[in-house]
Amino acid sequence: MRNPSTSRVLSEAELIASYLEVARKDIADLEALAVQLRDSPAIWPTIGQAMYQIVHNVKGQGTSFGYPLMTRIGESMMRLVKTPGESTVPDLRLLEAHVVALRTILQHDIRGHGGASGEVLAEKLESLVAAALD
Fold it and tell me: What is the rounded CA–CA span in Å between residue 134 and residue 129?
C-alpha cells in the first residue's frame, strides 16, 4: 500500500499503526452511536446501518493486521445488527458489550486470538447473540 502524500510504500508496522488509528476512531464512533441509541431507541434503523458499516470495516481488516479477535468479535456484532432496517432494537447491553470488547482489544494491544480469555469472551458473546436472535 502506498502513502498517497509521499507515494512511498508503507512498511508493515506503518500499515498496522494506520489500522489501529482507524480502528480506534471507529470504536469511538460505535460508542457514540450506542449513547445515541440509548437516548433515542426510535432512531435504531439509522444507527443500526451506521453501526453495521463501521463494524464491517473493523472486522474486515482485523485478521489482516494480526488482530483476528477483532474480526471474531466484529462478526458477532455484525450478526446482532445485521437487520438494521427492522424497528426492533437489539439488546443494548449486548451491543455495548461488543463495543467494550473491541475497545479492550485495542487498549491492551491483544494480537492474535487472545488466548484462553479471548476464546471465552468470543464464545460468550457469540452464544448471547445466538440466544438473542432466536
Answer: 9
List the pLDDT tens digit at each of the 134 positions of the chain: 555 555 677 788 888 898 899 999 999 999 999 999 999 988 888 899 999 999 999 988 888 899 999 999 999 999 999 865 566 788 999 999 999 999 999 999 999 999 999 999 999 999 999 998 88
Instruction: Report the top-level CATH class of 8-133.
Output: mainly alpha
Beta-ladder partners of 9: 2
- For residues 76 and 129, is the Cβ–Cβ distance under 8 A? yes
Output the CA torsion sign for 53, 125, 31, 68: negative
The reported pTM is: 0.88
Q: Structural domain boundaries of the chain?
A: 8-133
The secondary structure of the chain in percent helix, strand, coil, rounded to multiples of 5, reads 75, 5, 20
CA proximity to 55, closest of 33, 35, 86 = 33
